[in-house]
Design goal:
This protein is α/β, with parallel strands linked by helices. About 35% of the residues lie in helices and about 20% in strands. The chain is built from 10 helices and 10 strands. The chain has helices spanning about 30-40, 50-60, 90-95, 105-110, 125-140, 155-170, 180-195, 195-205, 205-210, 215-220, and strands spanning about 1-5, 20-25, 45, 65-70, 100, 120, 145-150, 180, 230-235, 240. The strands form 3 sheets. Strands 6-2-7-1-8 form a 5-stranded parallel sheet, with helices on both faces. Strands 3-5-4 form a 3-stranded parallel sheet, sandwiched between helices. A hairpin with a 2-residue loop joins strand 9 and strand 10. The two termini are about 20 Å apart. Bound molecules: D-malate (MLT). D-malate (MLT) binds near residues 26, 29, 30 and 105.
């Protein structure tokens, strides 16, 4: 069995994820926000490439049943209902709704994963739930790839650290797992920062940018390990939560 980490969706080549179980991480903030929205009862989250795609797609829904959400340069677009802040995706706002989401890196990375057996959205807030699913897949003989969305298509420290924590959780006592060098590097980054996620976020460029833009509260929300124990599965172009109504 293999467990590979890829930094940046641009590293994805055909064959990298073919038939594999894939986890996509964009800790700050898309993968956290998706977990929060689903945990708070959103019917589904549909990732889309651009704000224009969100507007076009929204026309296929009753206006009351859909939320236009996302960010560019961290901020909500004009005319959208929600930004990409997990704090906005409350139960009162998202319950029963379809969330159409576009973000700079996270949704782009998700849309870049083609041909995987399963795709799951991973972050710190759903660490134990998603780790258990990935560990079961690995034990069952599947190869697993963790895709770090990164920042502006480049390496992002917070995604690498989170990937490292997943590597640790998934491979505990599974000695036969082969790791690529990127997975080994992610483990080292997790060892350096994993016990103080606020220090991690205040070191990482995107964490500093979010704080400077007034989103410090989001950093704490994104650091709350296991606060939203959902398993978001991306299938048929939409993300829904694994549960009694959607078994694997
Ligand atoms: C992204 O997808 O690039 C991010 O989630 C950006 C953000 O809103 O912090």
């Amino acid at each position: 069995m293999r467990l590979d980490v890829l930094y940046g969706a641009q590293q994805l080549g055909s064959g990298d994820v073919q038939g594999r179980v894939v986890a996509v991480i964009d800790v700050l903030r898309a993968s956290t926000t998706i977990a929060v929205a689903l945990a708070n009862g959103a019917r589904t989250v549909i990732p889309l490439e651009s704000p224009e795609d969100v507007v076009t797609r929204s026309k296929q829904f009753e206006r009351a049943g859909v939320l236009l959400a996302g960010e560019r340069r961290m901020l909500k677009m004009d005319g959208f209902d929600l930004g990409n802040s997990p704090a906005e995706h409350t139960r009162e706002t998202v319950e029963g709704k379809t969330v159409l989401l576009t973000t700079t890196n996270g949704t782009h990375a998700l849309l870049g994963v083609q041909g995987a057996r399963d795709v799951v959205v991973a972050s710190y807030v759903n660490m134990s739930a998603v780790s258990a699913m990935l560990r079961a897949a690995l034990r069952g003989g599947a190869d697993v790839t963790i895709v770090c969305a990164g920042q502006d298509r480049q390496f992002a420290l917070e995604d690498a650290a989170c990937a490292g924590r997943y590597v640790y959780q998934i491979t505990k006592r599974l000695q036969q797992t082969e790791l690529n060098d990127a997975a080994l590097a992610a483990s080292l980054i997790d060892r350096k920062y994993g016990d103080n996620l606020m220090r991690l976020f205040s070191t990482a460029a995107h964490g500093r940018a979010l704080a400077a833009a007034g989103f410090e509260g989001d950093l704490a929300a994104c650091a709350a390990v296991d606060s939203y124990p959902v398993i978001p599965i991306f299938q048929d172009r939409q993300i829904t939560k694994l549960g009694p109504e959607r078994e694997r």
